Amino acid sequence: MRSTICVIVCLLLAYAACPAWAVSSESRGINTVLLFGGPKDLGLVEMDAGARVASARPTSRVALPIKMKTLTATKSTPYGNSYVRTYFSSDVEIGLTCAWAEITYGTTTTTWDGTAPQCKSSRIRLDELWAFNGWCVTVSIPSGGGFSSSAKTVSWTGEDVSGDHWAMRHIYSGIRASACLWLTSIRQSSNGSHYFETENDWVSANASRGISTF
Amino acid sequence: MTRDPGGSWLRVAGALGVPALLVLTALAAAGGGGRRGILEGFPGLEELRRWLSRAYVESQTSGGFGDYPLENLDVATLHQTHAALEIIGQVGPGAVQSPAATLSWVASLRKSGGMYDDPGTNAPILLETLWAVSVVRVLAGPALEVDQTAGALMAALEAALILESRSDGCATAHLSDAALAAAALERLLGSVFLQTAPQLATSREIAASLVGRLRSGPDGGTWRSLEGERDALLARVLACLLGSGTPRVASDILSQDLAALEGTQSDLPPESVVRALLDTCCLVWGWRDLPQRIQSSLQSYLAATLHRCGADGAYAWSNPWGVWVDPALNADRAALYAMAGDENPGTPALSRALDRLACHLGWSSLIQAIPGPDYTYFGVRLCSALGGCGGDETKLAAGARATLGDPASSAQDLLYGFRTLVALGLWEGADRAALVGRLEEWPPDDVHRDIYWLAPLHAEAAIAPARDARQALIATAFELTSGEGFPQMAQLRLLAYIVTLVGEDAGASEREIVRWVLALSTEDGGFRWSLGSSSPDLPSTYCAAELLALLGALGEARCDAMAAFVATCWREPGFLPLRPADIPRGEEFAIDLFTTYMGLQVLELLAAERPSA
User: Fold this and answer.
1) Cα A175–A135–B119 angle (5° rounding)?
2) Is A174 in contact with A68 (CB distance < 8 Å)?
3) Are A135 and B177 within 8 A, CB to CB?
4) Which of A7, A73, A206 is facing B478, going by the closest CB pair?
5) For the whole model, what pTM was predicted?
6) Is omega for the bond preceding A117 within 30 degrees of 0, making it cis?
7) pLDDT tens digit string along A150-161?
């Protein structure tokens, strides 16, 4: 039995090595925006397009054990005869050593579900933030428009000013954080705002969720 | 073995100075394992309790804790503070904690040129200035010097009005958003600060000119373009600019607004139409002077739209975990009730919401996290240590059981759902049966991925899944590729659980793990994440304490020094992951439920170990 334990000990040492990522300011990943403007009683009919994108979702490049988590949140704000909603679901991989994490695939949607004071939003704005709490954190962001980063956060902003839509969906992947030692938590906050010109009102729904890493 | 109630802790504390003395005295007072009292003596516990009460959310059936970093909760916003003061002024459900501090904070937000900016929001700066001036008006009255702001606002108003006049002319007469905001600001300023200011007279002349061009007919008694709500809003704002000297204008506007209110097709008339009525009535007439039919319409509106509010009679945010009353959504409605003299059924809910969102400088925005099983467990443990903080144990247990029964729950979710029920003292046989069923049917392909969380679950005596399931877990460990190097704390923690699972013959390996862990300890009592780490930190010390306790070796650590190290990570109202002095320049760390729980857990493990230390 002692030899068994020794083998386990040795094998588990394999975890000590973090995935050899070259930390860079940009990485390859999904960064897609879908807009919805069709009849509301049909729902988000362009979800098929989202599904096609989802089928291209990358698989983990990490062979060693990882911790998988899903960040989900929903928030609704009453307005007019219905609600402004924002909801997201993001798959997160966390290294066993807690020294890295990656959003491998996620979607965030903000919708205006009502018909009064107007059927479509004059403007739709989505502000997203991913915050990584850890020691000596470096983040990398997907290439493409809208993303920016600071020391421990990644943010993305998208806006539709056409006045022809009532929902916006952001599909993303490749948001990464590496720490010198450990990450203790990850949080995502997504704030969907809709402007109603007839009322001169901005209405927001801010969905937020955090997870611990070990 | 004799108990030494606090003696060793106090000896250490004596060498650490007053703050640590408080901490360690409190630790000693815990009596060697009692949870309540373990944090007694730490400064700022009331703030920690308040913070926890904010992170707690519940629906009709279940409850839980979100993660909220403190800085997100305690940042006052101009919009929310403006709304809160409006409500307090109308229904009086709360009190301003520190008017001087709020005024000072608002003053700090003033930018060059006199406008105000509220970092973190996307609102136009003009609106933020409106909210700032509104706050100042409520708290300071007309004596405040706002010349610079007034001048900037006048300039913005004039520029907007002149621009609109040039671009649209008399025929269409639309005002930009900026002009509307500027006009509202001007009204606010004019009513409070600048009754005699020459700029006010100038802007009124401009506004009167626009009103004149909007009106048509031989006597100017009809509106040129009031079909749209936007134009009605424009006319109302401009009429407000002219004040009570134009009752006929106001009467026309009231008729238009009332028609809009009565003619609306939706079950909820646009709030702005009601707000328009409110503004015009307040500016031109008192409630008692209003025509009876207008009074009746407004009261009917309030009654007819009550169903749009939550069960507590106030507008609220909602998500699957429940609803939260937001003062910013309720300011106008509260004003209507106040004007009508009716009892606002939402007042108790608004009062609770204001208390919940109040912070030192003002009121924070309502950013409510979705609870998770991990933070729920941390919250339950912290509340227990504080002697309670308002969570409903029945709903917390229901939330944990929902987690155990949810096929989508991850291994980490199950672990913390289990721990929550145990912490609440509500772990039952049916819960065990459900969890064991999940563990024994865990997809073999997922064991590799989930081993970090499955190992502690299998190691729990209270769960005790079938031996076959354990063997599958251990077998998975064999499949892992080998590597070299000294293990980091996270690997050692997992290793300890795996060794525990293997059974009674693991003694030698346990000793090896203990030696590795102790090699990561530092002179000042904390533990490092790896040999390459330069300084100790709380996450590493937390992992070390847990796995040493798991292996029955916590007594081999320098417990006194360990507790002293944890105490130095305290910064009101929780534990930082590093000692403040160790935080590198440019690094920022958030105190959240997890980091605070880490400190508590170490102290509790040490307190439980103390009699044998």
Assistant:
1) 65
2) no
3) no
4) A7
5) 0.77
6) yes
7) 888 999 999 999
Helix, strand and coil percent figures for chain B, each rounded to 5: 65, 5, 30
A211 → closest Cβ in B374, B481, B529: B374
Q: What is the mean pLDDT of each run of 10 residues along chain B (613 residues)?
A: 32 37 44 60 87 85 84 79 87 72 87 74 64 79 58 60 45 42 51 49 58 50 45 53 51 63 52 60 62 75 76 81 82 81 88 84 82 94 88 94 91 94 94 91 83 86 75 61 58 81 67 90 92 89 94 92 95 90 82 92 90 49
Between A195 and A48, name the one with better pLDDT: A195
Q: Which two tokens stand for residue B396?
A: 């917390």
Spatial CA neighbour of B233 closest among B204, B263, B257: B257
Phi, psi for residue B322 in degrees, rounded to 5: 145, -165
B144: left (phi over 0), alpha (psi -120 to 50) or beta: beta
Q: Pick from B14, B13, B15, B16: which is nearest to B27 by CA?
A: B13
Please work out, in degrees rounded to the nearest 5, the angle formed at the alpha carbon of residue A153 by the alpha carbons of A152 and A154. 140
- DSSP lists the bridge partners of residue A148 as A155
- Name the token pair of B95: 């009190």
Q: How far is A168 from chain B (nearest CA, A)?
A: 18
- The verdict on A181 touching B (C-beta cutoff 8 Å) is yes
Which residues of chain A are within 8 Å of residue B453 when distances are taken between CB atoms? 67
The crossing angle, in degrees rounded to 10, of helices B593-609 and B559-568 is: 160
In this structure, the number of other CB atoms found within 10 A of the CB of residue B511 comes to: 12
Contact A112, A123 (CB under 8 A): no
- Kindly provide the b/e burial profile for residues B141-175, where b requires at least 16 CB atoms within 10 angstroms of the residue's own CB: eeebebeebbebbbebbbebbeebbeeeeeeebeb
- Interface pTM (ipTM) of the complex? 0.79
Residue B9: predicted pLDDT: 33
Q: What is the mean pLDDT of residues A28-46?
A: 75
- Distance, CA of B568 to CA of B583 (rounded, Å): 12
Looking from the CA of B227 toward its CB, the CA atoms found within 13 Å total: 3
**CB < 8 Å from B in window 17-46 of A:** 17
DSSP state of B63: E
| Strand, coil or helix: B346 | coil
Ranges of beta strands (E only) in chain A are 26-27, 31-36, 66-79, 82-95, 100-112, 123-134, 137-142, 147-149, 153-160, 167-172, 175-179, 183-196, 201-212
Identify the CA nearest to B493 among candidates B545, B457, B536: B545
How many whole angstroms separate alpha carbon B291 and alpha carbon B343? Answer: 21
Report the distance separating Cα A78 and Cα A204, nearest Å: 10
> Would the CB atoms of A14 and B481 count as touching at under 8 Å?
yes
